[in-house]
Each structure stands twice: as structure tokens, then as C-alpha cells.
Amino acid sequence: MLEVQNLGIRFGGNHAVQDVTASIEAGQITAIIGPNGAGKSTFFNLISGFYQPTTGRIRFLGQDITRLPTHEVVARGIARTFQTTTIYKELSVLENAMIGHRVRTRAGLWDALLRTGRERRDEEESRSGGMAALERVGLAGQAHQLAGALTQEGQKRVGIAMALSSDPKLLLLDEPAAGMNPEETVNLMALIRDLVAGGLSVALVEHKMSLVMGLADEILVLHHGQKIAEGPPNQVSRDPAVIEAYLGSHAHGGQMGQAGTEGAHA
Q: Do the strands 55-60 and 218-223 form a parallel or antiparallel pair, or are they unpaired?
């Protein structure tokens, strides 16, 4: 579905991501993990067009998207969420979801100012698309509530609905479980499974290893911006390079990295 080849970006003399070749398969959940400063969020920023790579190529559904700006990447079918919940708390849940659909509309500034027929049609399409996204995340019943009045889990679901309303084929989730308690995390895992069962492909950056090991079909491990392992969870969890680079003292007496890594930043 998505392939990166020799992907890299340099900030000054620092290689944030260096010579990464990897793939994300359709219909699967792929987790990107690694210690602090590994380049995980930078990797997401490259895929989604927020950063332009210094080296390498990105192909999505057979097409080169390496140099496309973010809005064109979204239009091709890649959407993402962010580490911090980036919703508009003063707007309704539905209004937030509608924002994500706007990338699919055609009306311009003059249409909006003059309230043309095209603008009205686009607004109705956005409303329908937003409601469909809220149905998928279980928030249709809260569509007209203020987004800021929802729980932490609810606000996370609003953020996911904003991404889903652009009708993506690949959804990038950047630390989706950050700040959530164990019960909320379990609910989130169920939602992600449901989305994939419905035909979506998901890639996520996450520090909660209980979520990663219980959810991911494939894991990509980055360290100092380079890929050190890639494969299914049972293989990656036993990889000596992963244990040395990522786990450290947390490798002893427990699940892979579950203690001490939660809440860290990429």
C-alpha cells in the first residue's frame, strides 16, 4: 500500500530519519515504535507531507507522493491525527468532523462569501461526511454537543473522526492512547480494530506497549532515525537489537517496554 525507499531528512547536521526502507500493508495495523528521539513522528510527518524528505522516495498505491504538499496527500487518501488532541473545543462535535471533509470539497473563497449553490452543496456534503465519520467512531449521538465538553476519550474520537471524514485509505495515528486510562485504552483498541475490519489500513506511533503488542500486525522499530527491525510482534519482541536499543533496563521482568516509556515523545 505504502512504500518508502531510502527515506531520510536532515535538520542542519542532524539526521532525524536516515535511509529507511519499509512498507505498510493494506488491511493491517502497523505500529512504529522506538525510544525517545527515534524519529517516529518525523517519519509520520514525511509520509503525510508535513516535511519534505532530503533523500528517498514515498509511493502510495503505486504513485509517487514524495513531493506532494499535505492537502494533496490527504486528497490521495492519507489522513493523520497528532500527539496532542487538535480539535476545536468551542465548536460542536459535528462541526469538527465537517472540517476534515473540506479537503474533498470544491468551493472557494468567493463561493463561501457569496453563499453560492456550490458552497451550499459542499456544506451539505461535509455535513453528511462528518456524520458518517461520527457514526464510525461512536459519537453520532453527541454530534451537537460542544467538543470541549467531552471526556478525554471522546475528544480523541473527535480527532479520529476529523481524519476519517476526509475518507482516507490509510489512517496515521500519532500516540492515540496518550493521556488515556486503561479502560479508555481498551476502548480505543476496539475502535481501531473495528475501523480496520471496515476496510481501513492503520499505522500508529504509540508508547503503550500493551496496546502495540495486542493490536499490531506488523511493527517497525526506529532508533536514531534508522530502521533496526521490522516484522510481526512476536519476532520484534525477541530481536536482540530491539531489546538493546529500545528496552534497556525495561527488558527485565515484564512485557516489552511497558514500564517507563509511556508518555515519552518521539
A: unpaired
Residues contacting residue 187 through CB under 8 Å, at least 6 positions apart: 153
Please, what sign has the CA dihedral across residues 82, 43, 208, 74?
positive
**What Rg, from alpha-carbon coordinates, does the chain have?**
19
Rounded to whole angstroms, how far apart are CA atoms 164 and 156?
A: 12
The C-alpha atoms of residue 58 and residue 172 are separated, in whole angstroms, by 15
DSSP letters spanning 71-103: HHHHHHTEEE--SS----TTSBHHHHHHHHHGG
Dihedral, 243, 249, 251, 254 alpha carbons, nearest 10 = -160
Higher pLDDT, 144 or 119: 144
Query: What is the secondary structure of 107-174 as a DSSP string?
Result: --HHHHHHT-HHHHHHHHHHHHHHHHHHHHHT-GGGTTSBGGGS-HHHHHHHHHHHHHTT--SEEEEE
Distance CA 72, CA 92 (A): 27
Average pLDDT of span 169-197? 93
Give buried/exposed letters for 23-33 (b at 16+ CB in 10 A, else e).
Answer: ebeeeebbbbb
Least confident of 75-79, 133-137, 177-181, 198-202: 177-181
Here the cell at position 15 is 539526521
CA 260, CA 249: separation in Å to the nearest integer? 9
Cβ neighbours around 67 below 10 Å, total: 11
Domains of the chain: 1-77+169-266 (3.40.50.300), 85-167 (no CATH)
77-86, 181-190, 221-230: range with lowest mean pLDDT: 77-86
3-state secondary structure of 5: strand
